[in-house]
Write a structure and sequence with these properties.
This protein has 146 residues and is α+β, with helices and mostly antiparallel strands. It contains 5 helices and 6 strands. The strands form 2 sheets. Strands 3-6-5-4 form a 4-stranded antiparallel β-sheet, with helices on one face. It has a two-stranded antiparallel sheet with strand order 1-2. The longest helix has 17 residues.
Length: 146
């Protein structure tokens, strides 16, 4: 059973994003970023109400910019996916989940301490340089149902 519908093109997109956003965080850091991507495709709330596919998540525009900085500014995202990242992408779409990204819909690297909230959403935890944020259950219960 998979967590989200996907095809080989989706695996390539996730794999490219894993490398572009979290190569410096190692395999576990890349898996956590992938978890956020899948969570966004599954959550039916907040900024992700009409985002249902991996492609929708990767290329979502919010406030005039892509949600993932790597799509707009990163050269790594536009390089072909490597097999190591494809394996990680397959893990994420099939079953992988771990705290602090287990229910997280957001992450970022603040180059400082993680703030206790991110746009009103609570801090879930930190892995290396990335801070992860879960939605409040009363604003996005669907994030906790999958």
């Amino acid at each position: 059973m998979t967590r989200v519908s996907y095809n080989e093109s989706d695996i390539n997109l996730i794999a490219r994003m894993l490398r572009a956003e979290a190569i410096a965080e190692g395999r576990l850091g890349m898996l956590m970023v992938g978890n956020v991507i899948v969570n966004r495709a599954k959550a039916d709330c907040l900024d992700f109400k009409d985002v249902r596919t991996i492609r929708d998540v990767i290329f979502q525009v919010q406030g005039g910019n892509y949600s993932f900085e790597a799509v707009q500014k990163g050269s790594l995202f536009y390089r072909p996916a490597r097999e190591v990242e494809k394996r990680l992408a397959r893990q994420v779409v099939k079953y992988w989940r771990k705290h602090p990204s287990k229910y997280s819909l957001w992450y970022f690297n603040p180059y400082a301490e993680c703030p206790p909230t991110w746009y009103g959403q609570p801090f879930a935890g930190q892995y290396k340089q990335h801070c992860y944020y879960e939605p409040q259950a009363n604003t996005c219960g669907s994030a906790y149902r999958f």
